[in-house]
Amino acid sequence: MSTSSDVDHPQEGPGKLVLKLRGISKNFGAVSALADVDLDVHAGEVVALVGDNGAGKSTLVKILAGVHQPTSGTIDFDGEHVVLSDPATALGLGIATVFQDLALCENLDVVANIFLGRELNPVRLDEVSMEIRAWTLLNELSARIPSVREPVASLSGGQRQTVAIARSLLTEPKLILLDEPTAALGVAQTAEVLDLIERVRARGLGVIVISHNMEDVRAVADRIVVLRLGRNNGEFGPDVSNQDLVTAITGADENSVSRRASRRGMQQSREALI
Amino acid sequence: MTDDTQRVSTARLLDRRDERVAHADTLSGTIGAFVDRVRSGDLGSLPVVVGLLIICTAFQSLNPVFLAPDNLVNLLFDCSTVGVISLGIVCVLMVGEIDLSVGSVSGFSSALIGVLWVNQDWPVAVAVVTALVLGASIGALYAFLFNRLGMPSFVSTLSGLLAWLGLQLYLLGSSGSINLPYGSPLVNFGQMLVMPPIVSYTLAALAGVVVFATGYRMAARRRAAGLSASTLSRLLLKAALVIVVLEFIVYYLNLARGVPWMFGLFVGLCVVMNYALKRTKWGRSMSAVGGNREAARRAGINVRQIHMTAFMLCSTLAAAGGILGAARLASSSQQAGTGDVNLNAIAAAVIGGTSLFGGRGSAYSALLGIIVIQSIASGLTLLDLSSSLRYMITGAVLAVAVIVDSLARRSRVSHGRA
């Protein structure tokens, strides 16, 4: 289904607006975790959410997943004003979340995990239909899962991420949130997951990716939204320089990352002189 | 049919596209896959079968009465009472919890039968239902303590062990035991009633037919859907094997009194429980909660409700086991449910292959496990050994079973099969 051409070049112009956040704030007691945050996500668009620790990324994702409720601000989903009062509501509307720890049952096989809590035919499980649906989903994602009847414990980290994403696609969501999908993955597995994100985008879903890895973010995102101390701190295209991105994330030209870079640069030029 | 055409035809199947996975399509392939599975620590019921063979050989060589049909019929009568309790233990172990009070609950319900039926002259059916309902409410209490107050099941059931034992002693009062009337249906059921040969032979054949019919339907559906399916010859072989083995057992038991109805009830409960655990959403949720509670919760499973059903089923089955035990002994006594009943029930489930760590198990593990435990007890009794030795040996067998479980689990983790 997905060819390399639509992977390399995102579709001409984003689709219609799926998610519109305006003025989202969240206070935990005296601490203001989010202050007046705006965010737009279109269909068929990958938006990367980056920021330092404590920037409010996770809080924002939890609000979208229905785990937390915003103190103020409005959420428009699919053109309508919505209130995400609990995780089931968010899921019902079409917002699927893949949390960092994946939450798979290692003792169950891939089919059972994909359909967990949503089994077909509760009193006489329809294993055949579930297996076919699981294969269809995995094949659409061009996933490399050897067998869906093996327990998840036998899968690699990247394959588990694939299962978790396939699981979230089962409900036909319009927006999918991925929390650190490439953390703790090897080089090849990271590339596989990035491919996977692009295939999800090609299906016309809006995708929000949270990551600390600047390289991954620039490789896959159509837009990069920076949060800093709970506020919007800039929006960039995928061709932004690392320097600019780090500046936006840390909030200063002069920061530990740039200092380190210049120190190394000086060292190298000195070595070159000698 | 050449090898090549076969490969081409399987290559198109939806679940056979990945050439990295070995599939066992031939008989030797099946055996190879089985060996691989065992080596990686997925032992299934292999230890219990091996254990049973060792036990039978040892006791038979020491005392030839052991494998005599008469002794085996008695053994099956004895199996059924603790076996039903053990079936409940499988439920709580599936969700990764434990119930240490099953022995006391069974003793309590046995006392209840004596008091309500014999002393108070209630109809026997009403007394039985009352005991079962009270058993279920004990499980509900444990689940409440666990779900709402966060009390570990280990502690709540340990205190239950003492509390229900006390209640049993209180109910029986100073007399200490109540004799159930001989010749009543309940006592007959526990001591005498066996299936007529025609019924037992038919049931054994029926089991094979059901194995074949369900397997055939499944294979047809899978083939129609473009998935790999087992072949007709393999299905027939499996069904024939089931029929031959079961018919032989039935024939052998019919040389003596025959197959006890009580054992039939126990096996029936195992079959129903196996279906519920393997083929329903509830059973899938039980495994999920035992495997990863947080994942189950996030998948929208009502984890509290699953715990509730597990604890309630366990103590209801414990109460049922107590009633059967009273029927077997024709009395409700202070000794009912004490001693090794508790540990035998738990040991049977673990020996049969249900993991103490949750998420893995099968209803049939109660059946296989209790036969092992009861064989040891019966063999030692035949050798005229005192209960002191019997306790020590049963304890050692339980320890070995748990060691096998732990080692197999470690091996599964390192082979990626946890």
Automatic annotation (TrEMBL), chain A:
Protein name according to UniProt: ATP-binding cassette domain-containing protein
GO MF annotations, alphabetized: ATP binding; ATP hydrolysis activity
UniProt domain ABC transporter: residue ranges: 19-254
Keyword set, alphabetical order: ATP-binding, Nucleotide-binding
Domain of life: Bacteria
Phylogenetic classification of the source organism: Bacteria, Pseudomonadati, Pseudomonadota, Alphaproteobacteria, Hyphomicrobiales
Xref: InterPro entries: AAA+_ATPase, ABC_carbohydrate_import_ATPase, ABC_transporter-like_ATP-bd, P-loop_NTPase
Transmembrane segments: none
The protein's role, per its UniProt record: Involved in beta-(1-->2)glucan export. Transmembrane domains (TMD) form a pore in the inner membrane and the ATP-binding domain (NBD) is responsible for energy generation.
Source organism of the structure: Bradyrhizobium zhengyangense
From TrEMBL, chain B:
Membrane topology term: Multi-pass membrane protein
Transmembrane region(s): 46-66, 72-93, 100-118, 124-146, 153-173, 193-214, 235-253, 259-277, 306-329, 341-359, 366-383, 389-408
Record bears the keyword RNA-binding: no
Subcellular location: Cell membrane
Domain of life: Bacteria
Keyword terms, alphabetized: Cell inner membrane, Cell membrane, Membrane, Sugar transport, Transmembrane, Transmembrane helix, Transport
A GO molecular function held by the record: transmembrane transporter activity
Location (main, coarse): membrane
Pfam family, one: BPD_transp_2
UniProt keyword Cell inner membrane present: yes
GO cellular component: plasma membrane
Free-text function comment from the UniProt entry: Part of the binding-protein-dependent transport system for D-xylose. Probably responsible for the translocation of the substrate across the membrane.
Name listed for the protein in its UniProt record: Xylose transport system permease protein XylH
Organism: Bradyrhizobium zhengyangense
Lineage summary: Bacteria, Pseudomonadati, Pseudomonadota, Alphaproteobacteria, Hyphomicrobiales
